[in-house]
Each structure stands twice: as C-alpha cells, then as structure tokens.
C-alpha cells in the first residue's frame, strides 16, 4: 500500500511540474536575464516589408466627418453637430454609406464613396465641400472598424478602433494581453469575406509573422487564442489525480483499521 501511495505522489508531482510555466519565460524587462536571452538593444536584428491592407469603403460603413474652414461659424453648416462627443455614440452621429455607397451631406447632397480608400474619400469630400466652404480641411474616420478577441486573453470581447489599420498584436493588447496559459504559437483568425468565413492560423512566436498580410486586421475579424496544454493538465488531470489520491488514502485508512 505504501508503494502505491508513493507512486501516486510521484505521479502527482510530475503532473504539477508539467503544468508549470517558468516565470523567467513570462517576465518582461528582467534585471538579470539568462545570458542566452540577452541582446543588444541598439542592434537591428531584422527588417520586414509590411503588407498593410488597403481598406475600401463599402455600403453600411459609418464615417465621422469633422471639417475645419475659414468660413465664419454662423455659415458653417458642418460645425459642432458633426463632432463626436463623449456623451453620445459616435456611430449615431456619423454618416452611413447607403446601398449605393453614398453619404448625404447637408447642403451638398449625395457624395459617392463606395470602393474608395480613406485618403481618396477625404479628398473627394474636400472637393465636394469647396463650393460651399472656404479652404475646407476634412477629417474623415471609419467608425465601424470592429473586431473580436476570444480565448486566452485578459479581457475577451468586441472592440472598436478608429485607426485605419490595426495589427494582431495591437488587438490582443487592447484585449488585456495574453493570459498565463495563452498559446502564442497557435493564433486563429476568422475573416468574413464574400459570404464565407475563412479560417487562418499563425504563430506569434515566429517573427516572420510580422510580414504576413494577415498580421493586419480587417473590419469584423475574430481572433481566437488557444490555451497551452499546461492549462488542461492543471484544471483537469491534476484535479482527477488529487481526487484519486484522496480516495486511495481514505480506502487505505479504512483497510488499516479493519485488517
């Protein structure tokens, strides 16, 4: 019986060890890291040609429009009412592209922006405003760039960015960063295109991922961060072994009393 208990204890210890992630592999900016992990901060290790996506506007997109002009305020029909405030939803104050890709601007009328990039759209709106406002400077932003982050992160959920582009690492940072058991080598990306859901996988342990096109998100993308096997070991196997050890110990005590 003692041999059985010894074997179970050894097995439990091995499982506990297997479920641990070394702290030195998790801590950033350590005072005295291992020599093999040290590097020259001023030395360029690599450079990458980035594949930044060029997003083109589509029907249903919502834009914020803020215009600066030398026209007197009383004649500026695109004044403060078009500026998003912290007390209201910016999307409700934005301009929505209709089924044909038009936005409707007061006094100007419809301006078609479908298929244009954000810089192209800014230029087109600026030209449309010139007959009505003096020296217009247009600030146009996409309000409906949403993405979802699920799995082993600090805070799962859906997020909105007002950047024209955002990469996977920035998106995960916005979601609270990786959890202790996040599998940084198994990141999934779900993208919706042309009525299909497309699944991609990549590793953030590989620095070449920076140069991939899918390193940058598209609106409505979903990121899924898988867990490391250590989490399953800790949450399931160890619990089962602990229960088994408790049962064996209880049986051993009962047998020692009656035999």
Q: Would you mind describing this structure in some detail?
A:
It is a single chain. With 259 residues, the chain is an alpha+beta fold. The chain folds into 2 domains: 1-18 and 47-53 and 144-259, Outer membrane lipoprotein wza domain like (Outer membrane lipoprotein wza fold like); 62-142, wza like fold (2-Layer Sandwich), CATH 3.30.1950. It is built from 5 helices and 10 strands; from the N terminus they run αβαβββαβββαβββα. The protein has helices at 2-18, 90-93, 118-129, 168-174, 229-258, and strands spanning 62-68, 95-96, 102-105, 109-112, 137-142, 145-151, 157-161, 182-193, 196-202, 222-227. The protein has a 5-stranded mixed sheet. It has a 3-stranded antiparallel sheet with strand order 2-1-5. The protein has a two-stranded antiparallel sheet with strand order 3-4. A hairpin with a 3-residue loop joins strand 3 and strand 4 (109-112). Helix 1 (2-18) runs antiparallel to helix 5. The model is unreliable at 81-87 (pLDDT under 50).
Notable characteristics:
2 domains, alpha+beta, wza like fold, Outer membrane lipoprotein wza fold like, five-stranded mixed β-sheet
CATH superfamily of the largest domain: Outer membrane lipoprotein wza domain like
> Average pLDDT across residues?
81
Order of helices and strands: HEHEEEHEEEHEEEH
What is the gyration radius calculated from CA atoms?
Answer: 28 Å
**Largest sheet, strands/sense/barrel:** 5 strands, mixed
Domain count: 2
* Structure summary, number of beta strands: 10
- In CATH terms, what is the fold-level topology of the largest domain? Outer membrane lipoprotein wza fold like
Distance N to C terminus: 13 Å
Task: Based on Cα principal axes, name the global outline.
Answer: elongated
Adjacency order of strands in the biggest sheet: 7-6-10-8-9
Percent of residues in beta strands?
Answer: 15-25%
Helix content: 25-40%
CATH class of the largest domain: Alpha Beta
| Number of distinct helices | 5
Helix-strand makeup class: alpha+beta
CATH architecture of the largest domain: Roll
Low-pLDDT parts are: 81-87
């Amino acid at each position: 019986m003692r041999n059985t208990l010894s074997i179970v204890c050894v097995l439990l210890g091995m499982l506990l060890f297997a479920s641990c992630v070394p702290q030195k592999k998790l801590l950033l900016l350590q005072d005295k890291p291992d020599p093999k992990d040290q590097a020259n901060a001023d030395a360029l290790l690599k450079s990458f040609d980035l594949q930044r996506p060029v997003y083109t506007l589509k029907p249903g997109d919502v834009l914020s429009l803020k215009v600066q002009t030398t026209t007197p305020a009383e004649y500026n029909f695109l004044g403060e009412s078009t500026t998003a405030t912290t007390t209201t939803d910016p999307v409700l104050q934005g301009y929505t592209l209709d089924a044909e890709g038009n936005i409707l601007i007061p006094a100007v009328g419809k301006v078609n922006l479908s298929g244009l990039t954000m810089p192209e759209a800014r230029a087109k709106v600026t030209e449309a405003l010139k007959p009505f406002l003096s020296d217009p400077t247009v600030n146009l932003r996409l309000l409906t760039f949403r993405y979802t982050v699920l799995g082993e992160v600090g805070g799962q959920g859906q997020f909105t960015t007002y950047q024209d582009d955002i990469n996977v690492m920035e998106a995960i940072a916005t979601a609270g960063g990786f959890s202790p058991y996040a599998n940084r080598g198994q990141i999934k990306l779900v993208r919706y295109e042309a009525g299909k859901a497309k699944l991609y996988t990549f590793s953030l342990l590989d620095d070449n991922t920076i140069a991939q096109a899918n390193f940058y998100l598209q609106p409505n993308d979903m990121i899924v961060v898988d867990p490391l096997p250590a989490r399953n070991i800790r949450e399931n196997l160890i619990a089962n072994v602990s229960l088994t050890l408790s049962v064996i110990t209880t049986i051993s005590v009962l047998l020692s009393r009656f035999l």
